[in-house]
Design brief:
The chain has 279 residues and is mainly alpha-helical. It contains 14 helices and no strands. Helix 2 runs antiparallel to helix 3 and helix 5 crosses helix 10.
């Protein structure tokens, strides 16, 4: 077992479907911001920062699905699986959105029916419900055990997680005026509610008196953790990780909102004419 444990922490995996999908995603993006942009005159240029941001999002997905995190999450540790889910739903999606120029998305959204559908699902309430409902349902023990024992079901689960996560992040990270971000006050409320919604999954997993997922009960022990302790650590990773991200963004947005209000107040005072003095 010691040899197996040692290899787990350094073992990277070359799943063809992941490599092909991520290569196609990155390739299509670079084709869009490069040759296709020039050929169809979509924009004058692309900011290097945006390309780096999108690429970082792809790298996060690559690490979560091909690094030792994947093997640990699939076969040994529930806590590693929750770390993987945090990367796939809370880290990669906003990077992909922020790294995608609005002009690159407009041709895709040009058909009226596509635009109407996207506008509907990226509204705050549908976006909030879609992500949290999807995430919660897949953590029901029967479905969770199905996904962990069936490779293609697991792939479908991860695709659903990432798709609904992009939708969930859209009201906060959008760069399209046609599908705008929330105002600062509403974005703060939205982030606060997202942090609260995690309790739906966090509480049952954390406070269960026994392990919920038989797969990890039967798994070989690679750390000195009982299945129940591993489960509780996984729930804490999910709650603390998500909470830290949402709280940090909430604080950032609050201070941006405050600064903007201060600037607008100062500008208003400067523009107000002084009353004429009557002698």
């Amino acid at each position: 077992m010691a040899g197996i444990e040692g290899s787990l922490w350094t073992q990277w995996h070359g799943h063809p479907e992941v490599l092909i999908s991520l290569g196609a995603l990155q390739g299509a993006y670079l084709l869009g911001v490069g040759p296709l942009r020039k050929r169809f005159g979509l924009a004058d240029g692309t900011e290097p920062r945006q390309i780096a941001t999108f690429t970082l999002g792809v790298v996060v997905i690559f690490v979560s699905l091909l690094s030792p995190i994947h093997e640990l999450s699939d076969r040994y540790l529930f806590s590693a699986h929750m770390l993987q889910h945090v990367l796939l739903t809370l880290v990669a999606p906003p990077l992909l959105i922020l790294g995608t120029p609005d002009w690159l998305l407009r041709p895709i959204l040009r058909p009226d029916i596509v635009f109407r559908l996207v506008r509907l699902v990226t509204l705050p309430v549908p976006a909030f419900v879609l992500f949290n409902l999807t995430f919660s349902i897949w953590h029901i023990p029967a479905l969770y055990n199905l996904s962990i024992t069936n490779h293609w079901v697991h792939i479908g689960e991860h695709l659903l997680f990432m798709a609904t996560a992009v939708i969930m992040w859209w009201p906060i990270a959008s760069k399209m005026p046609e599908l705008p971000r929330l105002s600062y006050p509403l974005a703060i409320v939205y982030l606060f509610l997202l942090s609260i919604a995690q309790i739906i999954v966090f509480a049952p997993i954390t406070f269960s008196p026994e392990p919920l997922y038989q797969w990890y009960v039967d798994a070989p022990r690679v750390l000195a953790l009982s299945p129940l302790t591993d489960q509780q650590i996984g729930a804490i990773i999910m709650k603390i990780g998500g909470g830290a991200i949402f709280l940090t963004l909430l604080i950032v947005l609050f201070f941006r909102w405050y600064s903007r209000e201060e600037e607008e107040t100062g500008a208003g005072l400067l523009e107000t004419p002084y009353p004429h003095h009557k002698g």
